[in-house]
Amino acid sequence: MLDADLIGCYIPEINQGCQKKKQDKNGNEAKPRHIRKIQRIPAHAKGFSKIVVTLESAKVKPMRIGIVCYPTYGGSGVIATELGKALADKGHLVHFITYQQPVRLDHFHANIYYHEVIVPTYPLFDYPPYESALSSTLVDVALNSHLDLLHVHYAIPHASTAFVAKEILKRQGKYLPVITTLHGTDITLVGRDKTYAPVVSFSINQSDAITAVSRNLRDETYRSFDIRKDIQVIYNFVDLKRFRRRPLAEFRQAIAPNGEKILVHVSNFRPIKRVQDVVHIFQKVHESIPSKLLLVGDGPERPMVERLCRELSLCDDIRFVGKQEQLEDILSISDLFLLPSEYESFGLAALEAMACEVPVISSNAGGLPEVNINAETGFLSPVGDIAHMAAHAIQLLSDEDMLQRFRRQALKRAANFDLEKIVPQYEELYVQMIQQQPAISLPA
Ligand code: GMT
């Protein structure tokens, strides 16, 4: 195992202190060597990932990347964390700057650093100033870890805190390009609220690059705000090596002992997810097909959903399994994924299901039609049309040939969003941002 602090010595372009400048035979400074590719050796148990350095050349030079995100179970935090891990695997140095360790950041990785944002309290503060603490931490990390760029996920309040940090750094002679990724409710729900809108609009416009996770979200952003910059669509991604269907017969037997079909829903149980619709759809399916429903996740709607299960006398066939790390195992035993959301900018949960060969019954809201293809990888219905969704679920579950075909098609579709295809799009954007770095003149 390499010492985390020494890793830069193995990547000459990163740690100048460990590198002797090389000269060619004419005495000119030699171009930097191609970086040595870092490979990750799978750890045999949860814990440490080993890092080895090989001499294979890679196309992109290593960068020092700061990532800001919500560290909780939300989709934006998941994408930000998985992106950081994938970038670290490719040899970049990744610095997470968050108020708590991101949930999917569960392994040691020599190229990953974690900086906790501490928000000191004071009797005067009814509302501790998190944004100021974050901006100050960003300045500190950018200077001391020599960040090349900052990538913030979810506009509120990350885009404005990044802007403040960038302005402070500029006055200290450091240029820090800021990339803002819009994820969904930061635009469509919270961002539009007039309490936040002017700041959201201003700070998005101040970002050096803006990305949105679907065409729908990009268009919604242009509709809602006066954005005078290009918004690049970079879709959500899935790690197909991790999210793949595995034969877990014993697990399946434990959940569905009599060969019942298994339906699944994964979310943070917020009203926008319409989890009560999930239960109503299941009720109709259950009336004609022996079936079980797994509800994965937790959130504010859960008490109402539990009450509904009791009212409909479905408690024996619906299991609340809470927040789960091994999502791929649950998806591996599932036959159908339900996502009747009021809005989804993309629907990462649906993509992860499709990668595990689980067809999706979803609403047609937001960016869902960009992921779930109607009558191919599942079915789309208008928001709230429980009868339509249930009818399609019954149709699929009662036709084994059709179900198998949809499963193959779901996997094929998910492959378009493989991590290996999407992560390089972020890398290319980073390179562009670093290359367009303007000269900074210090204030007199
Ligand atoms: O709102 C949520 O459900 C969580 C939210 C987030 O930002 O944490 O998820 C959003 O971002 C995901 C990753 O980009 C998308 O896949 C989800 O569709 C999106 N959720 C909504 O738009 C409601």
Structural overview:
By secondary structure, the chain is of the alpha/beta class. It folds into two domains: 193 residues, Glycogen Phosphorylase B (Rossmann fold), CATH 3.40.50.2000; 168 residues, Rossmann fold. Helix content is 38%, strand content 16%. The chain has 16 helices and 15 strands. The strands form three sheets. It has a seven-stranded parallel sheet with strand order 5-4-3-6-7-8-9, sandwiched between helices. It has a six-stranded parallel sheet with strand order 12-11-10-13-14-15, sandwiched between helices. A two-stranded antiparallel sheet has the order 1-2. Strand 6, helix 4 and strand 7 form a beta-alpha-beta unit. Helix 9 packs across helix 14 and helix 12 crosses helix 15. It is elongated and about 75 Å long. The N and C termini lie far apart (48 Å). The N terminus is likely disordered. It binds ligand GMT. Ligand GMT binds next to helix 2.
CATH-assigned fold name of the largest domain: Rossmann fold
Percentage of residues assigned to helices: 25-40%
The global form is elongated
Low-pLDDT stretches are: 1-27, 29-57
CATH superfamily of the largest domain: Glycogen Phosphorylase B
Main CATH class of the largest domain: Alpha Beta
Q: Rg from C-alpha positions?
A: 24 Å
Q: Number of folding domains?
A: 2
Mean pLDDT: 88
> How large is the share of residues in beta strands?
15-25%
Structural class: alpha/beta
Number of helices: 16
Largest sheet: 7 strands, parallel
CATH architecture of the largest domain: 3-Layer(aba) Sandwich
Small molecules (ligands, ions, cofactors) in the structure: ligand GMT
